[in-house]
Amino acid sequence: MDTLPAGTLMQRAAAGLARRCAQLLTDRFGAVYARRVLLLVGAGDNGGDALYAGARLAARGVAVRALLLDPDRAHAGGLAALRAAGGSTVAAAPGVVDLILDGVVGIGGKGGLRPTAASVVSAAASSTASDGGRPILVAVDVPSGVDPDTGEVPGEAVTADVTVTFGCLKPGLLVGAGATRAGLVDLVDIGLSPAVPPVLRVADREDIRGWWPVAGRESDKYTRGVVGVATGSSTYSGAAVLSVAGASAGPAGMVRYAGSAADYVRQRYPSVIVTESVERAGRVQAWVCGSGLGTDERAAGELRTVLAAPVPVCLDADALSLLADGRMQDLLRERSAPTVVTPHDREFTRLAGFPPGGDRVASALGLANQLNVTVLLKGDRTVVASPDREVWVNPTGTAALASGGTGDVLSGLLAALLAGGLSGVRAAVAAAYAHGMAGRAAAEGGPVTSTDVAAALRSSVAAVLA
Predict the structure, then answer these.
(1) 106 has binding-site annotation
(2) Residue 49 in marked binding region
(3) 178 belongs to an annotated ligand binding site
(4) Is 47 labelled as part of a ligand binding site?
(5) What is the pLDDT of residues 312-358, one digit of tens each?
(6) Is 330 annotated as a binding residue?
(7) From CA 165, how far away is CA 244, in angstroms rounded?
(8) Is 250 annotated as a binding residue?
(9) Binding site annotation covers 292?
(10) Are 184 and 159 in contact (CB under 8 A)?
């Protein structure tokens, strides 16, 4: 702002916002001209962005109306531009609206929507579009009521179909409840060059392809990595089979299974080397431990042996339950090799002593620091956090993965990536990414089970690496 003419950044933002709205109107209604757009305008620059975008749409023949929540504090320049382009103000939402622009509260807002604003948003969203459907709702920079820094939604908030954000992605659009409220997120480049490191990173396909261990001409089954799987039991044999399935889809050259479900694993995967215990398994480059293991003394002994091994470890399910009472957490903190824990919210609560809450990034970072581990906090937008405060969010999550046993597949794949030489953070991020893609692929065939995800994992990995 110090180096550009006044209002330059706002005009860039408004231009990108108007362009995206025009595209949405064209895609749905076939044209921009004569469509009906309602601006919900709060005080400050967020409302100014909406007003200037509305002015650009009005200049293209759109019937633009602005509902000012605080007329005395509306952006004067934006309101003048709207009126000059043929737009006008209204006191209430019209009955027919094709697109709504949420310019109520921007990135400076805290807390949920105030009652008056919430009522206005609800009334506008209840309007009917000219084709008989509901209006398209576009949020300006961030859905009003969503905390832009954390994704927390502490009260009433807008649920957008599309959020057009400016300059950089805000964490609140990517994690927690905010990600659900944001819909499809479009980033408009307005020429900012952030001078600070990001607080959150989002993996893309190129990241995963660049990290994934690939066998070379000189590779053999040992140099590619050997992954040990200490999961399952006679009661929970499926956990063993599913975690071995995940491990087998990764880059490791050999899988060793250690546990009382050995017969089930042998029948399903004859190439896997099976033994009855971790101690007898032989040398591995990484372990996964926990899923279906149980919480009795035998299981605790297996976990202790795994934690004592000088190799990377992925801990899931029953291993986390065994850690929750604190008796083995010193072993965890003292490990020099990478350790990754993969809790869902209830497991996180048992480990940390409190639920993740609205700020999932801060919660994951806190547990990572507390236990000296990398934390993969499962969810629709899985968060990966390390003790050195590196944080990633996975963009491929899907509700289809909310099914028993899918986490077993994830932890097996993650351990194979650790055995292949990836760091704890990269292994966790890459595993979550590929696992999410497998969940999406499995969902194309209907309701998803963990077996479906395991079956889709190999082809999904191949597609990511292609």
Answers:
(1) yes
(2) yes
(3) no
(4) yes
(5) 999 999 999 999 988 898 899 899 999 999 999 999 999 999 999 99
(6) no
(7) 42
(8) no
(9) yes
(10) no
Was 345 annotated as part of a binding site?
Answer: no
Rounded CA separation 298/291 (Å): 14
Is 221 one of the annotated binding-site residues?
no
382 is in an annotated binding site: yes
Q: Is 147 annotated as belonging to a binding site?
A: no
Q: Is 412 annotated as a binding residue?
A: no
CB 149 within 8 A of CB 174: no
- Give the separation between CA 413 and CA 461, rounded to whole angstroms: 10
**Domains along the chain?**
8-196 (3.40.50.10260), 205-465 (3.40.1190.20)
Per-residue pLDDT of the chain (466 residues; tens, 9 = 90+): 778 888 899 999 999 999 999 999 999 999 999 999 999 999 989 999 999 999 999 999 999 999 999 999 999 999 999 999 999 999 999 999 999 999 999 998 888 999 999 999 999 999 999 999 999 999 999 999 999 999 999 999 999 999 999 999 999 999 999 999 999 999 999 998 777 889 999 999 999 999 999 988 888 899 999 999 999 998 999 999 999 999 999 999 999 999 999 999 999 999 999 999 999 999 999 999 999 999 999 999 999 999 999 999 999 999 999 999 888 988 998 999 999 999 999 999 999 999 999 999 999 999 999 999 999 999 989 999 999 999 999 999 999 999 999 999 999 999 999 999 999 999 999 999 999 999 999 999 999 999 999 999 999 999 999 9
Query: What residue type is 283 in one-letter code?
Result: R
Rounded CA separation 254/224 (Å): 8
Q: Please give the single-letter amino acid code of residue 428.
A: A
Residue 292 to residue 63: CA distance in whole angstroms? 60
Is 107 annotated as a binding-site member?
yes
452 is in an annotated binding site: no
Q: Is 183 annotated as a binding residue?
A: no
Burial class (CB in 10 A: 0-12, 13-18, 19+), 135: buried
Burial 398-437 (b: 16+ CB within 10 A, else e): bebbebebbbbbbbbbbbbbbbbbbbbbbbbbbbbbbbbb
Q: How many CB atoms lie within 10 A of CB 177?
A: 21
Ligand-binding site membership of 228 (annotated): no
Q: Is 446 annotated among the ligand-binding residues?
A: no
